[in-house]
Amino acid sequence: MAPAPGPRSKSHQEPEVVNVRALLRDREFIKVTAYVLPRQSKLHVLEMMERLRLTRTEAPPPARSRNRVVLPDMTSGEVVREINWRIGTLPPDDAEALARYVRRLTNWRLDRRRRDGAARATPPAPRR
Is 50 exposed, middle or buried (0-12, 13-18, 19+ CB in 10 A)? Predict the structure, then answer.
Protein backbone atom coordinates (compact mmCIF):
# COMPACT_ATOMS: atom_id res chain seq x y z
CA MET A 1 0.00 0.00 0.00
CA ALA A 2 1.41 3.41 -1.01
CA PRO A 3 1.65 6.23 1.52
CA ALA A 4 -1.10 8.78 1.38
CA PRO A 5 -0.20 11.95 -0.47
CA GLY A 6 0.03 14.91 1.85
CA PRO A 7 2.12 17.88 2.73
CA ARG A 8 5.83 17.24 2.97
CA SER A 9 7.39 17.35 6.36
CA LYS A 10 9.17 20.55 7.34
CA SER A 11 12.44 18.70 7.94
CA HIS A 12 12.80 17.85 4.23
CA GLN A 13 13.85 20.99 2.36
CA GLU A 14 14.20 21.43 -1.35
CA PRO A 15 17.78 21.84 -2.56
CA GLU A 16 18.82 25.38 -3.45
CA VAL A 17 19.11 26.04 -7.18
CA VAL A 18 22.41 27.60 -8.19
CA ASN A 19 22.69 29.75 -11.29
CA VAL A 20 26.01 28.37 -12.52
CA ARG A 21 26.27 30.86 -15.38
CA ALA A 22 25.97 33.81 -12.98
CA LEU A 23 28.45 32.21 -10.58
CA LEU A 24 31.05 31.69 -13.31
CA ARG A 25 30.44 35.21 -14.67
CA ASP A 26 30.93 36.75 -11.21
CA ARG A 27 34.06 34.70 -10.55
CA GLU A 28 35.56 35.67 -13.91
CA PHE A 29 34.68 39.33 -13.38
CA ILE A 30 36.39 39.34 -9.98
CA LYS A 31 39.45 37.56 -11.36
CA VAL A 32 39.93 39.87 -14.35
CA THR A 33 39.10 43.09 -12.53
CA ALA A 34 41.24 42.34 -9.50
CA TYR A 35 44.22 41.98 -11.83
CA VAL A 36 44.00 45.64 -12.94
CA LEU A 37 43.11 47.19 -9.57
CA PRO A 38 45.78 49.01 -7.60
CA ARG A 39 47.47 47.02 -4.84
CA GLN A 40 45.51 48.63 -2.00
CA SER A 41 42.17 47.82 -3.68
CA LYS A 42 43.35 44.25 -4.28
CA LEU A 43 44.05 43.96 -0.57
CA HIS A 44 40.54 45.24 0.20
CA VAL A 45 39.08 42.57 -2.10
CA LEU A 46 41.18 39.87 -0.44
CA GLU A 47 40.15 41.09 3.02
CA MET A 48 36.50 40.91 2.05
CA MET A 49 36.98 37.38 0.72
CA GLU A 50 38.56 36.38 4.03
CA ARG A 51 35.77 38.01 6.08
CA LEU A 52 33.12 36.19 4.03
CA ARG A 53 34.99 32.90 4.46
CA LEU A 54 35.30 33.38 8.21
CA THR A 55 31.59 34.11 8.63
CA ARG A 56 30.83 30.87 6.77
CA THR A 57 33.27 28.63 8.58
CA GLU A 58 33.76 29.88 12.12
CA ALA A 59 31.98 31.47 15.02
CA PRO A 60 31.80 35.26 14.78
CA PRO A 61 35.07 36.96 15.72
CA PRO A 62 35.31 39.24 18.76
CA ALA A 63 33.92 42.74 18.26
CA ARG A 64 37.26 44.53 18.09
CA SER A 65 38.71 42.25 15.39
CA ARG A 66 35.52 42.14 13.33
CA ASN A 67 36.36 45.21 11.23
CA ARG A 68 39.81 44.26 10.03
CA VAL A 69 41.26 41.01 8.81
CA VAL A 70 45.01 40.74 9.22
CA LEU A 71 46.79 39.63 6.06
CA PRO A 72 50.52 39.01 5.67
CA ASP A 73 52.59 41.46 3.60
CA MET A 74 52.29 40.50 -0.05
CA THR A 75 53.31 41.95 -3.37
CA SER A 76 50.65 42.86 -5.91
CA GLY A 77 51.30 39.63 -7.83
CA GLU A 78 50.97 37.53 -4.68
CA VAL A 79 47.66 39.22 -3.85
CA VAL A 80 46.34 38.42 -7.34
CA ARG A 81 47.45 34.78 -7.01
CA GLU A 82 45.74 34.54 -3.61
CA ILE A 83 42.51 36.03 -5.00
CA ASN A 84 42.57 33.64 -7.96
CA TRP A 85 43.22 30.67 -5.68
CA ARG A 86 40.26 31.56 -3.45
CA ILE A 87 37.87 32.27 -6.33
CA GLY A 88 37.58 28.56 -7.14
CA THR A 89 35.93 27.85 -3.78
CA LEU A 90 33.79 30.98 -3.60
CA PRO A 91 30.11 30.09 -3.01
CA PRO A 92 27.43 31.80 -5.13
CA ASP A 93 26.25 34.26 -2.46
CA ASP A 94 29.80 35.32 -1.65
CA ALA A 95 30.70 35.65 -5.34
CA GLU A 96 27.70 37.90 -5.91
CA ALA A 97 28.51 40.08 -2.89
CA LEU A 98 32.17 40.33 -3.85
CA ALA A 99 31.33 41.16 -7.49
CA ARG A 100 29.08 44.01 -6.25
CA TYR A 101 31.92 45.27 -4.06
CA VAL A 102 34.43 45.16 -6.94
CA ARG A 103 31.96 46.96 -9.23
CA ARG A 104 31.55 49.64 -6.59
CA LEU A 105 35.34 50.00 -6.33
CA THR A 106 35.77 50.27 -10.09
CA ASN A 107 32.83 52.66 -10.52
CA TRP A 108 34.28 54.93 -7.85
CA ARG A 109 37.64 54.90 -9.62
CA LEU A 110 36.04 55.56 -13.02
CA ASP A 111 33.94 58.43 -11.67
CA ARG A 112 37.01 59.95 -10.05
CA ARG A 113 39.06 59.54 -13.23
CA ARG A 114 36.30 61.13 -15.35
CA ARG A 115 35.95 64.02 -12.93
CA ASP A 116 39.72 64.61 -12.84
CA GLY A 117 39.99 64.21 -16.61
CA ALA A 118 37.17 66.69 -17.23
CA ALA A 119 38.89 69.24 -15.01
CA ARG A 120 42.19 68.80 -16.90
CA ALA A 121 40.53 68.73 -20.33
CA THR A 122 38.91 72.14 -19.85
CA PRO A 123 41.00 74.51 -21.98
CA PRO A 124 42.22 77.70 -20.38
CA ALA A 125 40.29 80.86 -21.10
CA PRO A 126 41.44 82.58 -24.32
CA ARG A 127 43.68 85.60 -23.90
CA ARG A 128 42.58 88.87 -25.45
Answer: middle
